[in-house]
Input
Amino acid sequence: MDAFTIKLTDLEKGVENFDFYFEAEDINDISSDISNNKSNKTHVFINARKFDDSIYLEGRITGNIELICVRCLEKFNFKIDKNLQMFFMEEDFRPEDDEIELEKKDLSTFYYQDDVIKLKPHLLDIIALEIPQHSLCSEQCQGIDYDKGFGEENEQNDIDPRWQKLKNLKLNNP
Ligand SMILES: [Zn+2]
Output
């Protein structure tokens, strides 16, 4: 069976649980804010219910994704924990009227063909929406620490080298 797909024949009992796993190779392409960490991964749990003319999916996406802070460029761990609800209907039920289709989209209704629900693009969309637009390691992030390279010397003086010149000026002043 292809990964990230549910066949209607899998739902013979009416209700069935599925577990899917995204590895770094899928996740790291979602956004440039995601680091290339090989351990990036998410688990997708799905409970599928078959109704007369639709399939109702509910579940949860959990995982750890390493992001790059847009201010300081340091990497930090982002926990993803998102509940999902999706309705799938057969392609034949797709409304022809564009406006109706838009409304349906708001309700997270999707369509499948040939008795196979292909979940991969939908799940990647959900994960992408959870990634913050401007990822920050913390709200208080001060940005890039330009003094970092000065190390011990900086600690001893306890003076920002940019102010050192000013200090000298003062001392030289009679
Ligand atoms: Zn930061």
About this structure: Residues 69, 71-72, 74, 136-137, 141 surround zinc ion (CB under 6 Å). The CA atoms of residues 13 and 70 lie 48 Å apart. Residues 151-156 have pLDDT under 50 and may be disordered.
